[in-house]
Amino acid sequence: MGSPEEARVRLPQLRLDELLEELQARLDAARGTRDRVHSLLEAVLSVGRELDLEQALRSIVEAAAVLVDAEYAALGVIGPDGKRLSAFHTVGVSEEQIARIGPYPEGHGILGELIRHPEPLRLAKISEHPASYGFPPHHPPMNSFLGVPIRVRDQVFGNLYLTEKRGGGQFDEEDASVTLTLAVAAGVAIDNARLYEESRLRERWLQANAEVTHRLMSGGERAEVLALIAERAGEITGSSLAAVALPMEDTGTLAVEIAVGMDAEAHRGLVLPMDSSLMGLAFSGAAPVTSADVTHDERISLEPPRFGGLGPAVAVPIGTGEAGPRGVVLLARKAGQPAYSAAETEPLQSFAAQAAIAMELADRRQDAEQVALLQDRDRIARDLHDLAIQRLFATGMTLQSAGRFIEHDEAAERVVRAVDDLDETIKIIRSTIFGLRTREGTGEAGLRARAVRVVGEAAPVMGFAPSVRMEGLLDTDVPKEIADHVVAVLSESLTNIARHAHASRADVLLATDGRHLRLSVTDNGVGIPAEGRRSGLRNMAERAEQLGGTLELTEPEGGGTMLVWRVPAQKR
User: Distance between CA 350 and CA 530 in Å, rounded?
Assistant: First the structure.
């Protein structure tokens, strides 16, 4: 043992070592706090500089994982109902793992606990919490947990979920404090990104409105403008299908004039009822109609199948003024994508209303041009009658009088022929005057409306409503004589199905390319018996032959009968 003197010397030395170790520990703690504050500031800056909302959310998740040294991190966005998650952004889980795990969570278990009680939540072991009921297959193991809500303007936007602190430790109060601070900055960043996104969206809608108005007022074709409306509405809302339907006069139906995007061909030309389709309900109610999933919506007919791979949809009337809607625009997204929110539907309504005003102005301009044309025709007819005919008549009278004084027989005969020619010319001019003064529009319905009316009259007898599709300029390119034959053949075909086919479905296609007209009527019935009466089919074949066309009968792959009646679109 050492002397008491040596002991007294060693004691202060030990106290000094302890003090130095404590000082070093405090310096390390201060340095760690400084580094963490520095990391927090960097995270806040990185999150705050993002203006794209999706990228901002991604940056928030990545920053949170780095700040608290978590192996896995996620940000769940709470849906409009406030009860489940509508989006889920993750860090630490690979794409292959996500594919094996399956669909993103909707907000049950621990995730739902934070939705129901938006307060910070720390757990040493997730499985020990009463709200936990395990993970799906192929999910990586997770124990320690830290959850923090993100508020945007006093409303809970979503939650930050952090799991598996690296090194096997637990999330402490400092981790929670740092994450809460980041959540506040994230709320501001999300709000800024939303405002920026809204301003850009308004700008895109305004540009689309201006483009539609300019195209209409510069004399663009109606089909071209409707296609532009559908394309722009689909692009801005991120839709996979966009369609525009217009009412068919005196039929109580809508015809889909334009369809662009997924399976557009299945929609183009369809004739839809007002009471059993999204477009019809939006038109008759003059208000938007939404569907969370068009493939399982009772308001949409199953036939013909036309919404494969699509999910959320919205139908918005084009204009809702005193005159009522002018049409309907339908938008649909792929299955699994978010439904159309009120924030998206409102600017779409405004766009449709502006498009309706532009269409109204274009119609007024067209009416004014038509009036000017008719007035010009009246002036030409009046001038021909008052000037040209009178002069020709006077000339004819003069020649007729002069013919009496001509002694040369051949010359006299030529003068008589000239007088006859003048009489014929006067008749031609009078016929032209009558044509100029004849107003367009006799009040008779076009082929489209007549065909829809025939189908509507046949539906009660058949016990179901056949689907109808129309393509091409049927009212313009098909003369009345041929249209009469088409209506008769269509009526006969539907009557035969009602009487003999025992069918539960029928599809009608009426199309023209300007050169040929094609009527196709298909059913899923029992087919045409070999010994059955053929008088109706013979009449249809004779009508086709009379117009230089053909009638074909085939059996579709699934059974039933397909009748194809094809004739030239112009009279021979």
Answer: 59
What distance in Å separates the CA atoms of residue 242 and residue 351, rounded to the nearest whole number?
Answer: 14
Write the secondary structure of 344-378 as one string of H (helix), E (strand) and C (coil).
HHHHHHHHHHHHHHHHHHHHHHHHHHHHHHHHHHH
Q: What are the residue ranges of helices labelled H in 53-138? A: 53-67, 95-101, 109-116
**Residue 569 or residue 384, greater confidence:** 569
Q: Give the whole-number percent of the chain exceeding pLDDT 90.
A: 6
Q: What is the pLDDT of residues 484-539, one digit of tens each?
A: 899 989 988 998 888 888 888 899 999 988 889 999 999 998 887 766 556 678 88
Name residue 484's amino acid: D
Query: Which of 267, 333, 346 minimizes the C-alpha distance to 306?
Result: 267
> Which amino acid does the sequence have at 90?
T
Residue 21, exposed/middle/buried by CB under 10 A (0-12, 13-18, 19+)? exposed
Q: Mind giving me the DSSP string for 124-176?
A: S-GGGSTT-----TTPPP---EEEEEEEETTEEEEEEEEEEEGGG----HHHH
Model confidence at 439, pLDDT cuts 50, 70, 90, reads: very low
Interatomic CA distance for residues 443 and 452, integer angstroms: 17
DSSP symbol at 386:
I
Angstrom distance (rounded) from CA 145 to CA 170: 8
Give the model's pLDDT for residue 33: 43
- Check residue 432 and give its pLDDT: 61
Read off the pLDDT band of 66 (50, 70, 90).
confident
Q: Which residues have C-beta within 8 Å of that of residue 340, sequence separation ≥ 6?
A: 237, 290, 312, 313, 314, 331, 333
Q: Residue 272's pLDDT is what?
A: 85
- Whether residue 168 contacts residue 138, with contact meaning beta carbons closer than 8 Å, is answered with no
Angle at 266 between CA 261 and CA 268, to 5 degrees: 75
C-alpha distances in Å from residue 53, one per residue of 186, 187, 193, 346, 520: 11, 11, 5, 20, 50
- Residue 431 vs residues 374, 397, 437, 474, 516: alpha-carbon distances, Å: 17, 21, 10, 28, 31
Output DSSP code: residue 107.
S
